Amino acid sequence: MVDPTPLPAPETALSVTGLTVAYTGAPAIEDVTARFAAAAMTAIIGPNGAGKSTLLKAALGLIPAVAGEVRVFGQPLAKSLPRIAYVPQRASVDWDFPARALDVVLMGLYRQTGALGRIGAQETAFARACLARVGMQAFETRQIGALSGGQQQRVFLARALAQRADLYLLDEPFAGVDAATESAIIAVLQSLRDEGRSIVAVHHDLATVPAYFDRVLLLNRRVVAEGPVATTFRQAQLAQTYGAALATAIPA
Amino acid sequence: MFLDALLLHAGYNAALVSVGAGLLGFAAGCVGAFVNLRRRALVSDAMAHATLPGVGLAFLLMAALGGEGRNLAGLLAGAALSAALGLWAVQALSRTRLPEDTAIGAVLSTFYGAGIVILTVIQNLTLGRPAGLEGFLLGSTAGMLRSDAVLIAAGGAAAMLILYALRRPLTLVAFDAGHARMMGLSPRRYDMILMLLTLAVVLLGLRVVGLILIVALLITPATAARYWTDRAGLVALIGGGIGAACGYVGAAISASLPDMPTGPVIVLLAFAAFVLSALLAPNRGLLTRALSRRALRLGAAR
Q1: Cβ of A98 and B179 within 8 Å?
Q2: What single-letter DSSP state applies at residue A61?
Q3: Helix (H), strand (E) at residue A28
Q4: CA R_g for chain A
């Protein structure tokens, strides 16, 4: 799993400047300016409808932005797409699709294989290694619809691993998965971070933020606060983000 | 008589029709698998119906220019143009706040209605020997020529070659368009290519199956194939095989019965293949599942 090209180490993995997205009428996110640190795990936190998924999709150009600029490792988005892996929400695809777990992971190798390149023993072995890294090697021939929700999420993560990206963007990777899958996924993400890769995840469970993440971005259609968990993940900022004081054990 | 037709002994023309329908069935089954995966079945039905005004107008134009009016290449060119217009109309309507199925319903019925009006006008004009145009509705292979069969074979082979070369990007786009974009693929471009391949099958099938039922030859064999395998490429291949068998046998049946239109026979055979697959396929078949549930129950009771 070692990337042959050494990572250059700029401070910022992903930067968005003045990003505004509107579906119909009122903007879903407005004038969002944020820098996501390289070689760190950042959580995007905010209430429902805050525009967390929208921010990820717009940063990747998957939905059109009204205004704003995106740079990845200092380069324009179009140039850096090969360095990005995106793990969408599990519900965004049809799991009855005729594909096995291994086939989905092999889709992450498309940039190498292209439309006509042979998928040989080497590519298959690499895809198997990606499945093994998320603990799914026993399920490689299983049709993806016959997997549990947590297993499907792991297959998605394995597909992202196959891309050997430097920046991983994940949309609610822990939604509807069991505790075992959650700890397996977080272990993989932390090992990616320790290899110097950058992780940005939309996250819902406030209780696990300090244990899982290095930095947080608090979002409610606009950026409320951004910074290290220790200084930014505080009662006052969260109350401002969610519009009400939250009765939790979050430090004041 | 039917056995003769099946074994290609029922005369040159019947043999030509059977082979042509078989090739068409193969192309339709393969392309249809990707149409199913990308959920474009209804769009392709609208496109097929939208060929009719083009057929009529092309006939009028060719007859007015003093031609015979029934030149197949000319009729197909007209069909392609009006199908493309219909596809554009569906996409333009879907960009407003109309849901896609509403847009499809509106376009399908409007174009088909316009086509029927034009055909009726043509029949009342007694101009340029219009007999046989209504064969485009349900398929009529009676007057099929060797050149028609060659056209189907060549067109089908070209479509299969393109489909084979693009099977991976088409699969990626169908499974997860967002991920495909991250892989540098343009979903819009591949959707357009898939629609062009579908249009090719529709045009090749106009003579054999007819524009009303061609969507069934696209969708049903591929749907039946889904029961037999969990791999996208194999769904396409098996769908092609089922489509080929239905086309070949259906044309033979139609040739051995008087005045039996080819399209409906082929489509009924495809439906039979679907029912058999849904009942009997290993793992996913209804009967197979019922039997294994019974075995489980008996095992638990013991």
Answers
A1: no
A2: T
A3: strand A27-37
A4: 18
Q: What is the pLDDT of residues A100-155, one digit of tens each?
A: 999 999 999 999 999 998 899 999 999 999 999 999 999 999 999 999 999 999 99
Collapsing DSSP states into helix, strand and coil, what is residue A75?
A: strand
Q: Rounded to 5 degrees, what angle do the CA atoms B203, B209, B213 make?
A: 95
For A246, list phi and psi in degrees, rounded to 5: -105, 130
Q: How many CB atoms lie within 10 A of CB A246?
A: 12
d(CA B151, CA A16): 54
C-alpha–C-alpha distance, residues A81 and A187, integer Å: 25
Q: Which of A57, A70, A97, A104 best tests the B interface by mutation, with the highest count of B CBs <10 A?
A: A97
Reported CATH class of domain B2-301 = mainly alpha
Contact B127, B69 (CB under 8 A): yes
Residues from chain B contacting residue A98 (CB–CB below 8 Å): 37, 226, 229-232, 234-235
Q: What is the pLDDT of residue B35?
A: 97
Across the range A171-195, mean pLDDT stands at 93
- Rounded to a whole number, what is the distance in Å from the CA of B210 to chain A's nearest CA? 30
- B232–A88 CB contact, under 8 Å: no
Helix (H) and strand (E) counts for chain A? Answer: 10, 10
Q: How far apart, in Å, are the Cα atoms of A171 and each of A87, A175, A223?
A: 6, 9, 18
For residue A86, what are the β-bridge partners?
Answer: A169
Residue A227: CB partners within 8 Å, gap ≥ 6? A215, A216
Pick the closest to residue A169 from A134, A217, A107 (CA basis): A217
Q: What is the ipTM of this complex?
A: 0.89
Here the contacts of B165-170 (C-beta below 8 Å, separation 24 or greater) are B165/A115, B165/A116, B166/A115, B166/B190, B166/B193, B167/A115, B167/B34, B167/B232, B167/B233, B167/B236, B168/A110, B168/A113, B168/A114, B168/A115, B168/A116, B169/A110, B169/A115, B170/B34, B170/B37, B170/B38, B170/B194
What is the percent of chain B where pLDDT is above 90?
A: 60
User: Nearest CA to B16 among B274, B248, B177?
Assistant: B248
Distance CA B68, CA B128 (A): 6
Minimal Cα distance from A59: which residue of B? B182
Query: What token pair was written down for A181?
Result: 């899958």
Give this prediction's pTM.
0.90
